[in-house]
Amino acid sequence: MQDVPATPLEIAAPGLLADALQAFGTARLRALGGSMKPAIHPHDVLVVSGCRADDLRPRDVVLFVRDGRLVAHRLIDVGLRAGRRVLVTRGDALWTADAPIDAGDLLGRVVAVGRRGVFRPPSACTALARARGLAASECTALRVRVQRWIDPS
To answer: Is the dihedral of CA 34, 38, 44, 46 positive or negative?
Structure first.
């Protein structure tokens, strides 16, 4: 699968969101991926509140910038690497943790998730929820592999 070139809006989104959080304290955006299933589904609306790394606790869902893209994943740990504060995160539907991110790439904390017009705090990552997310992730990966096998073009 080839990477699709980023649109101008995708390129500008992290900076625009950072400016909105700075000016207004909160912002809303629509989730696109499935790495946080079942807590966050594609097309859910995320309400993000600006915060500092000192304000975070493990299990918070945080929004950050990675490789020019916005990512919302669950915070696992806050640590130090080479004298700098780093955040370790992981999507609930992913097997492994993300590479640590610099605390300066943090945009905020997800304080609510909206689905069908109802907003609630992000759900906890229980063992059952994590198993459901991992199963959904594996099913998606299998579907992609089968599709590539059927149509290798």
So the answer is: negative
Helix (H) or strand (E) run with residue 106 in it: strand 106-115
Residue spans of the chain under pLDDT 70: 1-5
Q: What's the pLDDT at 5?
A: 59
Sign for the pseudo-dihedral over CA of 74, 106, 33, 138: negative
> Which domains, and CATH codes, for the chain?
8-150 (2.10.109.10)
Cα separation of 34 and 41, whole Å?
A: 6
Q: Which two tokens stand for residue 16?
A: 């625009």
Residue 81 Cα distances to 1, 8, 75, angstroms: 34, 33, 16
Tell me 31's DSSP state: -
| Tokens coding 31 | 């989730």
Compute the distance between CA of residue 80 and CA of residue 86 in angstroms, rounded to an integer.
Answer: 6
Tens digit of each residue's pLDDT (9 = 90 or more) over 15-44: 999 999 999 999 999 999 889 999 999 999
- Looking at the chain, list the stretches that DSSP marks H as alpha helix, in order from N- to C-terminal side: 8-24, 127-150
Residue 112 has φ and ψ, to the nearest 5°, of: -155, 150
**pLDDT of the residue at 3:** 57
Handedness of CA 91, 94, 95, 96 (dihedral sign): negative
